[in-house]
Amino acid sequence: MLTRRAVILGLGGTTGAVAFMLGLGWWRSRPEAQPSAGVLPVPFGEMAFTLTDHRGNQVRPTDWLGQPTMVFFGFTWCPDVCPTTLSDISIWLEDLGADADRLNAVMISVDPERDTPDVLADYLSNFDPRIVGLTGSLAEVQRAASGFRARFEKVPQDADYTMDHTAGVFLFRADGHFGGIIDYHEDRRFAVPKIRRVLD
Amino acid sequence: MKPIILSAFLALTAVPAIACETVTAGDLTIDHAWSRATIGASRPAVFYVEITNAGAADDALLGIATTAAGMPMLHQTQVTDGVASMPHALSVPVPAGQTTALAPGSYHGMLMRLTNPLKEGDSFPASLTFQNAGEVTINVEVLSMRAEGPTCSHAGQ
Ligand SMILES: [Cu+2]
């Protein structure tokens, strides 16, 4: 908790968020995809990717315009960070009550190799049913991450692999503009008011 | 990263009270051992636990063994510039006079090559090896995939 508290305090304000995003402006796996302008996630209207949700529907970022949206990057082979984030999001949605129905809650898989729409559907059935899982080709996932200034990287583990990935939850206002980040496993006393700010 | 100090956050989610086992080894008291259910056996599972060191000497958790997994390891989730990774941890410090938690987002046991899928309500034994206190075995409760920690029926928290 000490470390986490330090992170939360360090990123409390806009300055902290900007400093945080500066750290995300670097893309190891695909440097040519790194956008030149700005370090914050671009608005949905300027993102360009097409992914498939866990029910088989095609989703583009412009589909989210008109509703506040929260997005995080994860994968279903992830035992620690991702179930914790999905559990946190499920709790936040319950805390928000009926207001949460106006919110898009999205997980983008950084492991499209293993996370097919069916695999995502099976996994997400354990969490709040309003959470939508997205997957697609690696190229489209990279385009999505690029727009969010998020990073992910495949890392060998045992005979298999795991994924390092940006762990915060991105918040966007209904007009599609970036509205803040909830840090990994942030206390709900901070997280829920941050979400309410993009809901208003 | 410093060892996580015991706090109330493990009790945030209301889950059915279960009779969590408490075991002792020398100055160490070990309890709240839990894991999350898995889909199938090909995905890795986690192991979380709390270790209270009431002694005057520091100890360290060096390793974990269990029949539930062919390749259990100690990991430490780290978030650097917003990016989460979970490198192998050679040991977990268990300082004197403190409670150290293997907990979501921090140190955890990474249970790779599961023998069987972990189902909510199941339990399995895990043996922990400490530098000073030696080996101790505890029963691990499998909670739901969205659990954030156990609610034990004893007065441990
Ligand atoms: Cu791990």
Explain what you see.
The complex is a heterodimer of chains A (200) and B (157). Chain A has 6 helices and 9 strands. With 200 residues, chain A is α+β, with helices and mostly antiparallel strands. Chain A has 2 domains: 2-31; 39-199, Glutaredoxin. In chain A, a hairpin with a 5-residue loop joins strand 8 (169-172) and strand 9 (178-182). In chain A, helix 3 packs across helix 6 (188-199). The two termini of chain A are 30 Å apart. Chain B is mainly beta and 157 residues long. Chain B has one domain (17-143): PCu(A)C copper chaperone (Immunoglobulin-like, Sandwich), CATH 2.60.40.1890. Chain B is 0% helix and 48% strand. Chain B contains no helices and 12 strands. Chain B has strands spanning 23-25, 28-36, 45-53, 59-66, 69-76, 78-80, 83-85, 92-94, 99-102, 107-114, 123-130, 134-143. In chain B, strands 1, 2, 3, 4, 5, 8, 9, 10, 11 and 12 form a 10-stranded mixed β-sheet that branches. In chain B, strands 6-7 form a two-stranded antiparallel sheet. The model of chain B is unreliable at 1-15 (pLDDT under 50). The A-B interface holds A 1-4, 7, 20, 23-24, 76-77, 79-81, 83-84, 86-88, 90-91, 122-123, 126-127, 151, 153, 155, 157-158, 160, 162, 164-168, 181, 183-185, 187-188 and B 1-2, 4-5, 7, 9, 12-13, 36-39, 43-46, 71, 75, 77, 79, 81-86, 104-106, 108, 110-113, 144-148. Residues 75, 86, 108, 110 of chain B line the site of copper (II) ion. Copper (II) ion binds next to strand 10 of chain B.
Give a summary of the structure in a few sentences:
Chain A has helices spanning 2-10, 14-24, 81-96, 117-124, 138-148, 188-199, and strands at residues 51-53, 58-59, 69-74, 104-109, 131-135, 152-157, 160-166, 169-172, 178-182. Chain A has 200 residues and is of the alpha+beta class.
